[in-house]
Task: structure prediction
Amino acid sequence: MHLHLDPVGGIAGDMFIAALLDAFPALSSGLHAAMGKVGLPPGAHCAVLAHNDGILSGRRFELTLPAASAAPHAGRDHHAHVGLDAVRAAIAVMGLDAAVGARAAAIFAVLAAAEAGVHGVNVNEVEFHEVGALDSIADIVGAAWIIDALGPATWSVGALPLGFGRVHSAHGVLPLPAPAVVRLLTGFAFFDDGLPGERVTPTGAAILRHLACSSSIGPHPGRLSTSGLGFGSRKLPGLANVLRVLAFDMMHASAAETVALLAFEVDDQSAEDLALGLERLRACRGVLDVMQSPVFGKKGRMAAQVQVLAQPEETAAIAAACFAETTTLGVRHQLLARSTLARHETTIAAADGCAVRVKLARRPDGALSAKAESDDLRSSGARSSREELRRASEAAALKQEAKHGK
Result:
């Protein structure tokens, strides 16, 4: 299945939940059961409501909390700061399925990394304010439950509305889009429809980054099977404040696709600076891979040959990034056909509490292979510890898939 998110009015955690429940109403009872484990205070109310804004009809995910409720373990000061460890601990004791808890913790980790970059601190020093509140924890847990319930899927998102103005936060007055959103969605496509305010929330941005959404549906989206509309709480002048989801059945879609290959050589840039430039290229929207190899250039000089594999629609922007990040004076590019194996990603909760993403692929003989995301192994210590975590995560992912008969 492929799921395309169309951010007509923008995206937030509650809009994501509402849109998916509108498309897949059978998930509603399971979501309510998951919400019952969040530990909402007495007087809290969670509901999925039919909604019509006079333009379109769909659903809203509404969570109302008593006025004195905010962050977990905040004591009497309900606006106290909440660290990532406290959020992880709160999720860990909810009794969620391991995969759901791990995915929720992973979304918060993505958000924490963005906040750490914005404020120039270590990830463990990040303290959540608005995002650490119970309603945002509920949004992220709900989103994680739905993503897991849908099973293997690919995701894409349309161009995001920029919005503008300022917002009051625990850090003071911040520009819009919020700095954490800007960091999370660097490389994503935006457009300006002239409407002010916050159009993409940090929670919505973290979900998009966690899902690793591509920037387009692709040339072979498959058969449209269902759709859904999820409304936000704001009213936008002349525009429905809605997130639309389109679900495509990929059973009849071709496994062949077209990719762009950009290539160039560099012989006058230091190795250190080139490494930094290529790392920034890898972070560009639409880049699938960046490879570097040594070659002999003109006059027998050693040079670095760089090849960038990318989504075709991003070729112009990525070529511009190649010029910006390296000293090359020319970039060759061509379109190539490639065949891909069916694959999807799952998240495994490791024994030490960290979340490890594992990519699973179906081989031609029907066997399933697993590969742990190396970035998620970095914090596990020395090489032997990383290798142990890799083997355990891959084995757990394969066992999980076998249990579900996938």
Q: What stands out?
A: The longest strand covers residues 256-266. The first helix runs from residue 13 to 23. Confidence is low (pLDDT under 50) at residues 73-79.
